[in-house]
Design a protein that fits this description.
Largest sheet of chain B: 7 strands, antiparallel
Structural class of chain A: mainly alpha
Number of domains of chain A: 1
Number of domains of chain B: 2
Pfam family, one (chain A): Sigma70_r4_2
CATH topology of the largest domain in chain B: Protein Transport Mog1p, Chain A
CATH topology of chain A: Butyryl-CoA Dehydrogenase, subunit A, domain 3
Number of strands of chain B: 17
Domain RNA polymerase sigma factor 70 region 4 type (chain A): 108-157
Oligomer: heterodimer
Helix content of chain B: 25-40%
Structural class of chain B: alpha+beta
Protein name (chain A): RNA polymerase sigma-70 factor (ECF subfamily)
Domain RNA polymerase sigma-70 region (chain A): 14-81
Radius of gyration of chain B: 24 Å
Distance between the termini of chain A: 43 Å
Number of strands of chain A: 0
CATH class of chain A: Mainly Alpha
InterPro entries (chain A): RNA_pol_sigma-70-like, RNA_pol_sigma-70_dom, RNA_pol_sigma70_r2, RNA_pol_sigma70_r4_t2, RNA_pol_sigma_r2, RNA_pol_sigma_r3/r4-like, WH-like_DNA-bd_sf
Radius of gyration of chain A: 17 Å
CATH class of the largest domain in chain B: Alpha Beta
Distance between the termini of chain B: 36 Å
Chain lengths: 176, 300
């Protein structure tokens, strides 16, 4: 495929999967400004890596795996630089105004997702928000389906516990 | 999970960005792909089998090097180093002040600098361009001097984009930065398209130069002076077009292949972007050129 063809292909992917990638990155970080940059980086990386896309997985799954690398790279960078823990910094900037119903509970859920380990976050967002199948998540993470199921179950359990603690007025469990 | 929990996940599924955000990122992605500066990794140039060939070439060429060096002194005399502090440009209301190891660029009535000028080495240039989030890299053709432009995405209260311009100067680079929106795009390009160093005669191009503003794909002529800039309307002065020059401009926009002309009425031409998300009507009256901007698919 020539260069123009590749660019047009990426823009087609952009039109089809922008919302999915945007939401995935948004809930990984909880910050809209960063989200813009990482969505950009995801599609640009897709362009540079297109020749290596072997089409064994779907385009959507492949894009999620690129987005996963983009967000994990950023999390690692921040840890190395010993910056303010990523989740705490981003929580205050997340805006749930567009969610009409049950704002507080939704904000709490988003906050709780940010407290999970990065891999737990990836699994729960892909499953619960993006409604990916276990097989698709396994492809994104390059894990076995069994490992995905176990991680998902732990992540769900942790979110429930956090919810219970919050409802009881206690302090949320730190999982990082 | 309970039904209550499921409802919360459903609500998270409904979150979307605005179509304006989507379009902005789209343009950035497109621009980055065009400039192809994305995470370029140096290719492994020397393979083992290539090293022997390279050595042989060096040996053969070695005898010619002495001859070349003999003439270097004379050539340097013809191309003296430019003193970057000695220059002029045609833009009004922009002036420089000497700082410690650079010049700071100021706009009248603004307290903070809007840019800087200094000389940097090749290593410093490399460091600037690789360590900042640059989303556009472009060689500016037909400008007064060879110029490499980078656009950095900046997240500061008063700066959204930082333009970096590098002009080769012997073995170093004259390095300009300008902050948008402290200066409008048109002002930045007006400065760089009219710059003239005292030590080196500039190249004068006999045709109008066109540039993109920010990450956009619409062409704008250089030499514009912003008169009024709002979200939906931009008015510029300062470019006395002839009918022929204006027609050439309209043709140049069509020639990009990124905009389709959908209406023409006298001096007013309406273009729509290929993806249909942006509409621009351009009207020219003597010394004034007006851009009316519309976003047909944007949710208000």
């Amino acid at each position: 495929m020539n260069t123009n063809g590749k660019r047009e292909m990426v823009m087609e992917w952009y039109d089809s999967y922008y919302d999915d990638i945007y939401r995935f990155i948004l809930y990984m970080f909880g910050d809209r400004q960063l989200c813009e940059d990482f969505v950009h980086d995801t599609f640009v990386r897709a362009y540079t890596a297109m020749d290596r896309f072997d089409q064994r997985s779907s385009v959507k799954t492949w894009l999620f795996s690129i987005a996963k690398h983009v967000v994990l790279d950023e999390i690692r960078k921040r840890k190395r630089r010993k910056l303010v823990p990523i989740e705490k910094e981003f929580l205050s900037t997340f805006n749930v105004e567009q969610l009409i119903e049950n704002k507080e509970a939704i904000q709490q859920l988003v906050n709780h997702i940010q407290l999970l380990k990065p891999n737990y976050r990836i699994v729960i967002i892909l499953r619960k928000v993006e409604e990916c199948s276990i097989k698709e998540i396994a492809e994104v993470l390059e894990w076995s389906e069994t490992k995905v199921r176990k991680t998902l179950s732990r992540a769900v359990l942790l979110l429930r516990k956090m919810n219970q603690v919050d409802e009881g007025g206690g302090k949320g469990e730190q999982t990082r | 999970m309970s039904k209550h929990d499921d409802d919360q996940w459903k609500q998270l599924q409904q979150v979307k960005s605005t179509s304006q955000e989507k379009e902005q990122i789209r343009q950035r992605v497109w621009q980055s792909m065009q400039s192809e500066i994305i995470n370029k990794k140096p290719e492994r140039f020397f393979h083992w089998q290539g090293i022997a060939t390279a050595c042989l070439i060096i040996l053969i060429c070695g005898s010619f090097l002495g001859f070349i060096f003999q003439n270097t002194g004379e050539q340097n005399a013809e191309h003296p180093t430019i003193d970057y502090r000695q220059f002029s440009w045609e833009i009004e209301n922009i002036y420089t002040e000497q700082a410690e190891d650079s010049l700071e660029i100021y706009k009248e009535k603004q307290d903070m600098p809007v840019g800087t000028i200094k000389e940097v080495s090749g290593e410093e240039m490399e460091s600037i361009t690789t360590q900042s989030p640059m989303f556009v890299e472009k060689e500016l053709e037909n400008f007064p001097y060879p110029i490499t432009m980078y656009i950095e995405h900046v997240k500061m209260m008063d700066t959204a984009l930082r333009y970096h311009f590098f002009i080769p100067n012997d073995e170093k680079w004259i390095y300009f930065t300008f902050d948008y929106p402290k200066l409008e795009y048109a002002e930045i390009f007006h400065a760089m398209s009219t710059i003239k160093f005292n030590d080196k005669k500039p190249y004068i191009h006999n045709h109008q130069l066109y540039v993109n503003h920010g990450y956009g794909t619409m062409l704008f002529p250089t030499g514009l002076t912003p008169y009024s800039i709002t979200l939906y309307k931009e008015i510029y002065h300062g470019l006395a077009y002839s009918n022929k020059a204006y027609s050439s401009y309209i043709e140049a926009i069509e020639a990009t292949g990124l905009w389709k002309k959908v209406a023409s009425n006298g001096g007013r031409h309406t273009f729509i972007s290929l993806d249909g998300n942006q509409e621009v009507s351009i009207t020219w009256h003597g010394n004034e050129i007006i851009y009316e901007l519309g976003y047909p698919n944007r949710e208000e």
